[in-house]
Specification:
InterPro entries: GOLIM4 (IPR042336)
Keywords: Coiled coil
Number of helices: 1
GO cellular component, one term: Golgi membrane
Number of strands: 0
Strand content: under 5%
Protein name: GOLI4 protein
Length: 192
Amino acid sequence: GVFMYNHLQQKVRNAEALAQKYKQQQEALSAQLQVVYEHRSRLERSLQKERGEHKKTKEDFLVYKLEAQEALNKEKQDSMNRYGALSSQHKILKNQHEDVKKQLLDLQLQHNSLKLEHRKTLETHSQKYAQLQQEKDSEVSNLQDTVFKLREESKLLRKAHQEVHSQLLSAQAQMEEFRQLKEALQKMPSFK
């Protein structure tokens, strides 16, 4: 009985020691579990915060994406409008260029025609000028001949005039002599 009692006491002590050991392990595990819970709680809060930030970032990204899309669409529309305006302006300028090109061609043809006409007119004027120069030279030559003849005639006329003047003086002298003679005769009684 004593042996059984000692044996049971020994078992009880062993059980108590084992229970104490398990209790310590349980306390250690509880402490570890508490740390794990706290860590998990911190992780959950951090995850919640991250989710909130992620959601906000996602919403901001969606707003940015919408704004960027709208801006891109607006820029695309503006670009299309500018392209349309530039295309219209290009067509207008192209038509104007064609018109100017046509006008230039017409002006070149007109210039060539005027150049040819000018050349013909210049040749005609040169011929007329040469003809007029020839006629003028001929006329000058004729006038010089006429002047020479007139000078000769003038010399002859002067000479004839001097002769007539001499004859006139001689006739006047004779007339004076006849007058004096007549007067002398009239004074003579026998003449009466």
